[in-house]
Amino acid sequence: MHGYCNYHVKNEVYSAPVRCFKEVIHSLGLIHKIEPSSGDDSTVGWKSGVRVLGIAESFKKSKLTSLVAGVVMRGDFRVDGFGICQPTIGGTDSTASLLGLFRRLKRQDIRAWMLGGSLISWFNVVDIVELYVATGVPVVCVTYHPSEGIEKYLSEYFPDDWQSRLETLTKAGVRTPIQLVTGHSAFLTTAGVGIARARRLLDMFTIDGRVPEPVRVARLAAAGLYRDTFHSTLEGELKK
User: Fold this and answer.
1) SS3 helix, strand, coil % of the chain, rounded to 5?
2) What angle do CA 128, 125, 64 make, to 5 degrees?
3) Are 215 and 202 in contact (CB under 8 A)?
4) Of 35, 18, 13, 6, which Cα lies nearest the Cα of 135?
5) What is the CATH number of domain 42-239?
6) Which of 20, 88, 101, 193 is most buried, by the most CB atoms less than 10 A from its CB?
7) Backbone torsions φ then ψ of 182, nearest 5 degrees
8) In 10 A of CB 37, how many CB atoms?
9) Which residue numbers in the chain have pLDDT < 50?
């Protein structure tokens, strides 16, 4: 089931499924504004074999780029797809990088993004609304710790563009605290799907603790690839 968008075309408002309408109108250059909306999907379930794209990263602040891993996982926990991308540390290209990863996978069966946070690569903010609008695939972003507010850090580290970063971060609304079926707590931000339905998806993919398997496996893959790639590069430089 796909989400719907409201399309403002020549002062008229149309509502249609993302996949069958957005690309045509966009190609005609007629879109004035796109407002993603999931409507009331609180009673809509997920198929047992649903596939999601889990996203997690590994990085060192001293490097130019991070390594983000994307793992396609089925509802039975089988992994049947994998990709990587490398956003800039402290940059503004994380959304474009993730969209590139998604397109390179060439998958038509992914039913949800599952992100382990929307602040990656040292404050390179992921626009989860844009991920949804560009792909028609709902986004579930899960985090785990309360925050006193990110604004002071953005303004301190990025005085030139902190406001645009903050706008991107808050575009999808405030984080919603939830309790998983495992008894652990987390925070959700979503685009194209309601909180209740997103929580059910997390419950499907969380075996224990509070980290869903697609994110956990993506995290392991990113850490291993980053570690080994880094050491291989270092060893090659030392041999020169």
Assistant:
1) 35, 30, 35
2) 135
3) no
4) 18
5) 3.30.2170.10
6) 193
7) -75, -10
8) 12
9) 1-37, 234-240
Spell out the domain ranges in the chain. Answer: 1-37, 42-239
What is the reported pTM? 0.80
Angstrom distance (rounded) from CA 196 to CA 40: 9
pLDDT, tens digit, 9 for 90 and up, residues 151-167: 999 999 999 999 999 99
DSSP state of 51: E
Q: Which residues pair with 14 in a beta bridge?
A: 7
CA 123 to chain centre: 14
CA dihedral (181, 187, 193, 196) positive or negative: positive
**Cα dihedral sign, 225-226-227-233:** positive
Whose tokens are 């045509």? That residue is 24
Q: Which residues, at least 6 apart from 102, have a Cβ–Cβ distance to it below 8 Å?
A: 53, 70, 83, 110, 131, 135, 137
Q: Tell me, what amino acid is at 33?
A: K
Distance CA 11, CA 7 (A): 9
